[in-house]
Amino acid sequence: MKKTKLTLKDVAAQLGVSTATISNAFNRPDQLSQAKREEILSQCKKIGYSGPNKAAQILRKGTSNIVALVLADSIAYMVSDPVASTFIKGVSSALQEQGKHLLLYAGDSKSILDVVDFVDGFICYGAPRNNKLIDELAVSPKPVVTVDFDIDNKPSINIDNEDAAYQVASSALNEGDSVAILGLRLIDSPSTCRVYDSPLIGVESSISHRRLDGYMRAAKEKNVAISKERIWHLPESGRSFARQAAKEVLTSSPRPNVVLCMSDIIALELLHMALEMGINVPLDMKITGFDGIEEAERTRPRLTTVCQSSAEKGVQAAQALLNDMEEKTMLPFELREGETI
Amino acid sequence: MKKTKLTLKDVAAQLGVSTATISNAFNRPDQLSQAKREEILSQCKKIGYSGPNKAAQILRKGTSNIVALVLADSIAYMVSDPVASTFIKGVSSALQEQGKHLLLYAGDSKSILDVVDFVDGFICYGAPRNNKLIDELAVSPKPVVTVDFDIDNKPSINIDNEDAAYQVASSALNEGDSVAILGLRLIDSPSTCRVYDSPLIGVESSISHRRLDGYMRAAKEKNVAISKERIWHLPESGRSFARQAAKEVLTSSPRPNVVLCMSDIIALELLHMALEMGINVPLDMKITGFDGIEEAERTRPRLTTVCQSSAEKGVQAAQALLNDMEEKTMLPFELREGETI
DNA sequence: CTGTTAGCGCTTTCAG
DNA sequence: CTGAAAGCGCTAACAG
User: Fold this and answer.
1) Could you tell me which residues come within 8 angstroms of residue A151 by beta carbon, excluding any fewer than 6 positions away?
2) Domain interval for residue B284
3) Which one of A246, A294, A296, B142 has the fewest beta carbons within 10 angstroms of its own beta carbon?
4) Are residues B194 and B121 in the same domain?
5) Would you say residue A139 lies in a domain?
6) Nearest protein residue to nucleotide C9, judged by CA and C1' positions
7) Do residue B89 and residue A103 have CB atoms under 8 angstroms apart?
């Protein structure tokens, strides 16, 4: 009894039929009689052949049932971000429904080339930290769907970040306010800092700049001036960066009485720290977030923020990919009035 | 100018060398002169050949650089669990270091067969909900590493759950205490309920039962009786199940003055609810958790719990897989005394 | 150091 | 409905 892996050919020989018949029994039920098919399948099970080798199928058919999810940053970081993980959740449930598999791909990887040949497509969540990936995706022969950013001629899922930011800022701001903004990835710096006159990055494509635009439009309408030294840049939305930035804001002078935050994580960190310092929210300081994560609902006072359904985004992205959608989709968002403004 | 994808053969023809030379230029630098190699590589770049097709390489070489991470449950659930996502974090960072890719695989999938042919191995985090997968993994020709449970003859990463539970219970319990236990997956039920006399599941393999054993050993030593109607079963460690169970416990009579929880998520939910009800923790009720998640450190009063480094587990699991380790590894844990006992 | 060639295991025309 | 045969694109002996 040798244990060399059985091949379709072996099986065909053993059962005394041709290889095509075995192949058809597994892949194209309509190509042979019900009876014959069941006969073959049961024989296969008996002799321990569990079906055509997938690696060979991938080469031959050119499809693998694997979808790559390209994250903006390292997997390590993304998977612990509540917004990203909710998105992954949406993607994975939609994929699982269709029997597709999920390959997680870091946005700071060198290249996309070592998977492009065998995955069935890419879902790209946020502009990957390594810009080169964007160029590679742009010319990839495999379908691509982007989320929270765009690539020319590729379908995408977005919300209107400018408008969302405008709305949340509008409801928070009043003439005479002293405002600070806690922004995400506005400039090219690995650490928390004020923006000052650093050149803004990815101004066209980035959701952060759309949000900034929205804040500024609201500010202008309300006759509120916001100078660049009151705008902070955070390299990512992790708690430690948020804490740093929150501290800087809270100890800056004059202390702002409205702080617009580009993520709930940042806003919550600021909120907690402010409360600890005995600052009354919203009387002494108003705070707004962005995203609408669960924790923001549980926290007291409840955070005023913009809700976007990351899970829904994930589902839509997966469906767009699997159904070869061409259009760019704009998903709705919702202002959630909490108790922090 | 046709756009048919270039193959290695085409390139060889165009450059006037043999296919082996092209292949070697990409895969085995030692097989040809530095000069020739660079010549070839730069020519390839110029004509737009980005290297050997990966699908073909997978078939030919039998390796893909893809590692499947089999989760205990659906990806959707796992990715939002802080313990699991920290584990994923560890795995992914170790894999990324070695240029390996991460395929997330749901533990409630039908079978492992549709990836076994092309992945390089499996990391299996917790006993998959679908038991069939365990049998398939047990006979898989590809390397397997299990975490938080065992398969005969396969390497594994574990902590001593019995001892950890014993220690945390020991430090919480005193003679005369009225104790409740909030357990995980103790019986076969999709909803929160008391264990009573339902048959326990997976008694041998499950970490939950090891923890239960540890609690019981401590209880016995301290002369504390814990009846099965004071032991709750939660199907998973999500907040909503936790909330349900917490409510049942807090409204049960007599109300226990010590509650041992098998996860921090459960313990925190209980803690919050108890505080809201005006119960003094730890005076009126002591609470212990398990895992040592970040949130448990941030919460006041700080939770008393067992810390295990899920990230480290992930790293070790990945290394065990990549280095073909054979042994079963036992990782250390650490009791963290908070203010809830 | 380079070229030839036999597969890796399968799918899919195309005849029968 | 079945069988024979041509590749999918590549790698690794092996011979030169």
Assistant:
1) A124, A134, A137, A138, A144
2) 161-307
3) A294
4) no
5) yes
6) A56
7) no
Pair (A107, A152) in one structural domain: yes
Out of A74, A102, A141, closest to residue B75 by CB? A102
Q: How far is CA A119 from the centre of its chain?
A: 18
Do B133 and B243 have their domain in common? no
For residues B243 and B303, membership in a common domain is answered with: yes
Nucleotides of D under 7 A from a protein CB: 1-5, 7-14
Closest CA-bearing residue to C1' of D4? A18
Footprint of strand D on the protein (CB under 7 A): A 16-21, 24, 30-34, 36, 56, 59-60; B 5, 7-9, 19-20, 23, 26-28, 51-53, 55-57, 59-61
Euclidean distance between the first and final Cα of chain A, in Å? 75
Same domain, A100 and A189: no
Q: Does A131 lie at the interface with B, CB-CB under 8 angstroms? A: no
If DSSP codes are grouped into helix, strand and coil, which group holds residue B47?
Answer: helix
Q: What is the CATH number of the domain that holds B153?
A: 3.40.50.2300
Tell me the HSE value of A196 on the side-chain side, using a 13 A CA sphere: 6
Rounded mean pLDDT, B7-26: 90
**Count of alpha carbons within 13 angstroms of residue B124, beta-carbon side:** 29
Q: What is the mean pLDDT of residues B197-202?
A: 82
Quick one: average pLDDT of B122-151? 96
pLDDT category at A340 given cuts 50, 70, 90 is very high
